[in-house]
Amino acid sequence: MSEQLIYELSVPGRSGTRPPKLDVPLTALPTELLRDKLPLPEVSEIDLVRHYLRLSQLNYSLDHGMYPLGSCTMKYNPKVNEAAASLPGFTGLHPRQDEATVQGALYIMYQLQEQLKEIGGFAGMTLQPAAGAHGELTGVLIMRKYQLDRGEMQRDTILVPDSAHGTNPASTHMSGLRVVEIPSDERGNVDLAALKSQLSDRVVGLMLTNPNTLGLFDENLLEIIELVHECGGLVYGDGANMNALLGIMRPGDAGIDVMHFNLHKTFSTPHGGGGPGSGPVGVAEQLVEFLPGPVVRQAISVEDEFPYYTLHTPTQSIGPVKSFWGHFGVIVRAYTYIRMLGAEGLRRTAEHAVLNANYLLRRIEGVYHVPYNRLCQHEFVVEGHFEDAPEVHALDIAKRLIDYGVHPPTNYFPLIVHEALMIEPTETESKQSVDHYAELLLKIAVEARETPELLQEAPHNAPVRRMDEIRAARQPILRYVPVDSR
Amino acid sequence: MVYVPHTEAERREMLAVIGVESMEELFQDIPAAHRYPQLELPEPLSEMEVMQELQELSAASLNANEAPTFLGAGAYRHWVPSVVNHIIGRSEFATAYTPYQPEISQGTLQAIFEYQSLICDLTGMEVANASHYDGATAAAEAVIQAVSASRMKRKKIIVSPYVNPQYRQVIHTYTQGMGLEIAGEATSGALAELVQLVDKQTACLIVQSPNFLGELESLEGLAAEVHARNKKTLLAVATNPLSLGLFTPPGAYGADIVMGEGQPLGLGLNFGGPYLGFYATREKYKRNLAGRLVGQTVDKEGQRGYVLTLSTREQHIRRERATSNICTNQGLMALAAAIYLSTLGKQGLRQVAELNYQKAHYAAQQIDALEAFSVLTTKPFFNEFVVQCPAPAAEINEFLLNGWMFDIIGGYDLSKDYPDRQNQMLLAVTEMNTRTEIDDLVHALAGFEAHRILGGDHE
Amino acid sequence: MTIDENARYLESHEWARKEGNLFTIGISDHAQSLLSDIVYVELPEIDDELEKEELFGVVESVKAASDVYLPLSGTVVEVNEELLDAPELINEDAFGDGWIIKIKADDKDEWKELMDADAYRAFIK
């Protein structure tokens, strides 16, 4: 099964649209600046629609079935979110319009800021970052500037546990800071002795993913935070795994100073095949003025019958991290989700996310080795490797799951687990759906011994077979080149 | 409970399998003092109630699609063909994740490959990535590409003051820990003056065309001048992609990086986002390119297919040595842009670009004919130009919005970013502005003059 | 697994071999096997002057990108341009056709500080 490229469907002279007629007198074009050729495809609307429909059919998506990618929180994306975000008074607003004409939109942003502050236990919130990694960069820049502004020029180090998302060290490096990695102990917690040995007045802060990428809540969380605070450092919380904590614990209450949320994970906005995401950042009181601007403020005025919302740039801001104030379309979806659920619904979301993960873990443990086997949070990690089937790897198990019509878990992450399969069912999967997934994993474990080649050759019935990634990387073809100009 | 399907009986059964008595027991690792906080959030609503509230909020703002709008300055009101939102709304695209499993993600992968190809064709470049967050972050990534290509040895960058101020601010934010020297913003913005700043330490020169004032910069020969002063300095050009339907692309003038805001390519205004940072560079820099890249290859049976490639540069493998921390792209927005470019195609894009050009020029001529207003833009421009006004732009906009017989959304007040440009307004005219709308704007501006002369202004 | 008895090694798995006035530099057979299929090699420029243990290039496989460090301070006099089209030469012959650069060393004493073949053999055990 394959689909031609849109260029290959092109027929000279066709067009999928008819622009309006010119209704003003002609002005001469500056001929010396005009381009001579524009090699875009020429297709009719029906060709185009069929092309994209056929392409869509080559994708697996969340609306097809279970998508338990660890650390990605692929929960159901409610359709009311889409209806809300497509309302004309949201899609049609120009970001540079006068504040007085966009009060409805500013109200939503203000409310979402307040709601996320409440959910996370923070004093300030920016909705500007475009994604989780972007939120991390924002957070690290905030921590850096806070330390510099209070005269701690010697602080140049960010501590990152070895179980962290790879974006943590990358964000740190982009901020011009040094990364020091902290190992995990045998229970999957941050190794306290190793942490203590690195604490000094060079520490800007610690970046902590909690629950961590093993799906485990750090049993020494409060002690870790206290230790870092004692040496003058800040604690960054990677909120990628916030789905386990909604209404269960507010990271700010535990002393986390900065945290990014992932609206596209925890708050049910669609992932879009890799974006747009949204990564709001919440901060403790002493960091509020370092947030990127603008943020929305409610103008307090006794005379006004209605509150008035304004855009405001914090006084010691690190500066904006993108144009305007964030992915407003995503913000509307997350706001809608929180309005649908309320406090009670959010708590039940976390509870069932954790219930599903622990249940699936119990159903497959013993057959799959669980390197850190204790109560997990919203996800867990097993080894995708069997001693008596040495030729079968985590990748083969993942590919075999595709044959059975479900999406594989995250594999080969976190790096600290050999042949890792990282599984996050999310709360929106029913017991039946989780049971089905468990049964597939158990069946594949049997196949691994009996018919390993079935796994190694998988997938057998996907639109394409395994791809030659070495060829793609050695001689990259990154764009369409017409045959006659090759 | 809306999105959790479990029944009470199922819950009990699952807890028993886990070996705990209650939900709360699952959270025994959470410090007891902080467990189960009372969240002060509004009561949950039904879908009907939520939509009623949101419809009211939607109606509480002035929709720029329902008023004559002449506001641009980095975000533009254009016609979005119906097919665009129809296709990007499909679950198969919208509810998929980053295509890590190529066998079941060929739809997303091929669409991105087509997007990369279309961006290359449009910009006249050789390699495009799968996108950045927006134009401003794409500009910052250009700086990072240039500086890291020099292995952090060349630490000076030169930026024209007429690069979109938001792009310039984001460059400052991104690079604040890198110890860079950022030059050029205090110059007149003349290309000759900027080129003079290129020296041995310079990683890149960034200009924009059409620039923030709407003018087309004369890029002819610029790359050669830059490279003559330092062959390793990269020339990065931010551009409005729709203008490339008509004008020679920066790639043809020898730019090393071409990037900018992709919003004009089929994305709604959406109050500032999500937008699209398009980004293209030269073949020789393909392995220095941040963000995701899709490449063509074959499967084990020799069938053509697509994969994410050159991903070892990325953070999940290289960690602190990564080219950039960027993780997602703007997948769905890149898809929208690809659909837009394919729908309009070769002829359509040129026609729409020309409509923008013609209407903007008509508007400029009419406004320039007014006594109290004059057009300051003297270089060729695309769909935006600068008007010298008889009063602060904010005051004129207030009049257009509230003092005229109907709402008009006026232009951008340039004094916000350029304090010496008092009473200057940047007006954008697109294919969406009918001649009637343009004539109304001109009448309203004439009305503003009369209103002032009659002493009816606010002072 | 082969080890070149005439080469000397860094702990980061680069080797150096004396050839006349010059030193040839590459990565060990052990390192290439850890990386698996190599897809790209980023080379320094001729005349680059680099310090011992300074980064001089990157070797990328589908799985990993590995920075490569110089065993001896010196000036780059030759780079193996064949690797640009055929990076798999490192997989096939890490100590031969898969060499990466040749340098003119600044300080011949640095050579003595490197691990010899026996020490490296013990190191990777």
Question: Can you walk me through this structure?
Answer:
The complex is a heterotrimer of chains A (486), B (459) and C (125). Chain A is an alpha/beta fold. Chain A has 3 domains: 6-56, no CATH class; 80-339, 3-Layer(aba) Sandwich (Aspartate Aminotransferase, domain 2); 346-470, Aspartate Aminotransferase, domain 1 (Alpha-Beta Complex), CATH 3.90.1150. Chain A contains 13 helices and 12 strands. In chain A, a hairpin with an 8-residue loop joins β8 (295-299) and β9 (308-312). In chain A, α9 (328-364) packs across α11 (431-450). Chain B folds into 2 domains: 67-76 and 346-453, Aspartate Aminotransferase, domain 1 (Alpha-Beta Complex); 82-340, Type I PLP-dependent aspartate aminotransferase-like (Major domain) (Aspartate Aminotransferase, domain 2, 3-Layer(aba) Sandwich). In chain B, β8 and β9 form a beta hairpin. A 7-stranded mixed sheet of chain B has the order 1-7-6-5-4-2-3, with helices on both faces. Chain B has a 4-stranded antiparallel sheet with strand order 10-11-13-12, covered by helices on one side. In chain B, strands 8-9 form a two-stranded antiparallel sheet. Chain C has 125 residues and is of the alpha+beta class. Chain C has a single domain (8-116), classed as RNA polymerase II/Efflux pump adaptor protein, barrel-sandwich hybrid domain (OB fold (Dihydrolipoamide Acetyltransferase, E2P)). In chain C, the strands form 2 sheets. In chain C, strands 1-2-3-9-8-5 form a 6-stranded antiparallel sheet. In chain C, strands 4-6-7 form a 3-stranded antiparallel sheet. Chain C is globular. Chain C starts with 7 loop residues before the first strand and ends with a helix. Classes of the chains: A alpha/beta (486), B alpha/beta (459), C alpha+beta (125). At the B-C interface, loops of B face β6 of C.
In short:
By secondary structure, chain A is α/β, with parallel strands linked by helices. In chain A, 33% of the residues lie in helices and 10% in strands.
